[in-house]
Amino acid sequence: MNLLEMLKMRKKDPAEAPKVEMPVYWLETSDSVTRRYEFEPDGYLSVKVVNDTRPVYHKVVDSFLNKFFPLGYPYSVNEGYLRYTQFRALQHLSSAALSVLSTQSLLFAAGLRPTPAQATVVSWILKDGMEHMGKLICSNLGARMDSEPKRWRILADVLYDVGTGLEVLSPLCPHLFLEVAGLGNFAKGMAVVAARATRLPIYSSFAKEGNLSDLFAKGEAISTLFNVVGIGVGIQLASTLCSSMQGKLVVGPLLSVLHVYGVIEEMRAAPVNTLNPQRTAMIVADFLKTGKVSSPADLRYREDLLFSGRLIKDAGNVKVGMALHRVVKPSKLKEWKEIFPEEKFVLSQGYKWTDMLLEHNATGEDALRGWLVAAYAASMNKSFQEPSAIVLQDAHDKMNSVFTPFLSELQAKGWHTDRFLDGTGSRFAF
Asked: Which of 14, 95, 151, 413 is most exposed by smallest CB count within 10 Å?
């Protein structure tokens, strides 16, 4: 090896020197919290809290929100989620406390003298067996629950309180223990099935960014937390105020009222965004009166949660779901299909209301079209006589002139127009 080669070996090429990649990171300070954001080698963004000078109270609140509220709250959920969660917590707390008292009463009626802790354990055991009969009874009601989830959710909690009330009263008639306990468990079984069946539609109304699973998980976490708190409250009540039957007869109704009030306010806060007869009628009525489309949040406090089948005059007094052969004669049906061959609805005006019948594959858009035609025809013909073909044609033309922007605004407000949930309403097919 000559001198020139030795010099070449000792000489270092700067281009061949190993490159040292500097980490890409930055610091952001917001609300007295400094966070370090850094891109990892695999491309993911990591976030670490560098400095947090907030009071302990704010740290606890932030930790609670992270564990029990969806990621990105409040921007990742629809309006009303906080109020819904508040009353959901109240509902579960009062329900769990009432459950402990009812179980203790059942065991008293059976001739036992349990401690509050024993009553708590048995309450979980009894829950496993009470659902079976309720499932059988409620198996054919799923379509109605989809159409009116709020109403059925309230009914579920009323049934639950009826069952719990029977259990609380069971020591007054120990000779009828099996009958009273069986009827109470039957009512509670139906309540559990109805509550579970309506849970998903309610959660779906709050989902804003495809985060339904996160909403569901955090909602169940809230329920579990306040169920545990409610059990603790129930144990305390069973040991003190409700150690006697007189105490249960005073505290039990109060907890029941609190429970039902909580679920009613919880349901009123939920902005359900699917089309059913009541919400469709309210949308059409508002559109005809003001020219504006109401959002789910606009209608949530105006929904009738008990009598959802009420007719709305400003929307044409439309009723959905009657059987075709009961309201339309074959000659009238043939005449209708000749005038409007492309429509998937049939209208038949009576003395007090207008029946709308939908084809089997009709969507929410078809129901909206029919509802608008019925409302326009009713406003054109104020008499009780059946509207002529000319009136229906004019109403149909008016509907067509406004329907495209009307539908676009509906969808922009968050309404799901791809389906119409009419419960167990009858439909027809040619």
From this structure: 14
Q: Which two tokens stand for residue 39?
A: 């891109």
Question: Which whole number is the average pLDDT over 75-97?
Answer: 84
The closest of 298, 59, 272 to 151, measured between CA atoms, is: 272
Complete DSSP assignment for 256-323: HHHHHHHHHHHHHH----EE-HHHHHHHHHHHHHHS-PPPHHHHTTTS-SS-TT---GGGT-EEE---
In Å, how far from its chain's centre is CA 110?
39
In the chain, the amino acid numbered 13 is: D
DSSP 3-state of 240: coil
Is there a contact between 158 and 95 (Cβ–Cβ < 8 Å)?
no
- Per the CB < 8 A criterion, the answer to whether 421 and 276 are in contact is yes
Picking from 91, 60, 52, the residue whose alpha carbon sits closest to that of residue 257 is: 91
| Percent of the chain whose pLDDT exceeds 90 | 22
Taking the C-alpha atoms of residue 373 and residue 367, their distance in angstroms, rounded to an integer, is: 10
Under the banding of pLDDT at 50, 70 and 90, the label for residue 200 is: confident
